[in-house]
Design a protein that fits this description.
ARM-like, Leucine-rich Repeat Variant, 17 helices, Vac8, ARM-type_fold, about 0% strand, repeat, mainly alpha, single chain, protein-membrane adaptor activity
Length: about 290
């Protein structure tokens, strides 16, 4: 194994060598291996580097006909965005956000690992800068992420989608408004209700609770929308009372407090409490 670069100049030189294998004529095997090498190199050192050229070439690889190349390019782009501002500028110049959303919108033709990496990439773009966030929203990225936040998809896709939605919601009021307008509150409520009955969905549950908390905070309208979403209040109560996860309990309690202080949500909360009390009473006779 080659020794790790010890200086910024050595690191930049090593990255430049890898970049040669990301060119269009390098071949799929070399491209996918080089993209994964970029990920590993960026994860293993904090040395600064100019990633503009690598980002440009990775952006072009999103259009590859080989899913494994696209998959690794998406993962490498996320790593580049987290490592250097030069990558953010290059992503803007080479339409990475638009390419990623377009690719994700191709739907059932995508393989699951590629979908997962694209969801991570969109979440990273949402956090990277105001410009990449706005491009994501304008291109319909929130809608594409929300589409995967559904019980009909695999748990891995659900978790990745809700994680990206959390990053979107944390990016500011504009992103929350777009996500809410696209139906994020009832979608996440349905996902939360489904995850409350599964012992293997802890990460989905805590992320859904966290995202809902961000979306309904300081928004009475969204609080009411959540309160009246089928199964939502019952699911929140479940995580307060029965969850073994302290994070879930704490976030669920905060979310319930938001709903309980909204007078317009009172009837929905009262109905859910009565339904739960009736169910618990019935269990005592079984």
């Amino acid at each position: 194994m080659a020794a790790a670069p010890k200086s910024p100049d050595d690191f930049q030189l090593a990255l430049d060598r890898i970049a040669a294998h990301l060119q269009q004529d390098a071949g799929a095997d070399a491209q996918q291996a080089a993209a994964m090498t970029v990920v590993l190199m960026l994860q293993s050192t904090q040395l600064p580097a100019n990633l503009a050229v690598i980002t440009e070439r990775l952006a072009a690889l999103l259009d590859s006909s080989q899913p494994v190349v696209q998959r690794n390019a998406a993962a490498a782009l996320s790593a580049c965005l987290e490592a250097s501002d030069s990558s953010v500028a290059s992503c803007l110049e080479h339409t990475v956000t638009q390419r990623a959303v377009t690719l994700l919108s191709s739907g059932s033709s995508l393989d699951t690992p590629l979908e997962l990496n694209l969801l991570v990439l969109l979440g990273t773009l949402a956090e990277a800068s105001e410009a990449t966030l706005q491009l994501l929203l304008d291109a319909g990225g929130a809608e594409q992420v929300l589409h995967r936040a559904s019980p009909q998809h695999s748990p891995q896709l659900q978790e990745a989608a809700v994680d990206s939605l959390c990053k979107l919601a944390a990016s500011g009021p504009a992103a929350k408004d777009v996500a809410a307008a696209a139906g994020a509150v009832p979608k996440l409520a349905a996902l939360l209700a489904a995850s409350s009955t599964s012992s293997d969905a802890a990460e989905i549950s805590v992320r859904a609770l966290l995202c809902l908390g961000m979306l309904v905070s300081d928004s009475p309208e969204r609080q009411v929308e959540l309160a009246y979403a089928p199964g939502a209040v019952a699911a929140v109560l479940h995580f307060i009372r029965k969850s073994d996860d302290g994070d879930c309990q704490q976030i669920a309690a905060g979310l319930f407090k938001e709903l309980a202080t909204n007078a317009a949500a009172k009837d929905a909360i009262t109905a859910a409490l009565k339904e739960q009390q009736a169910a618990e009473a019935a269990l005592r006779f079984l």
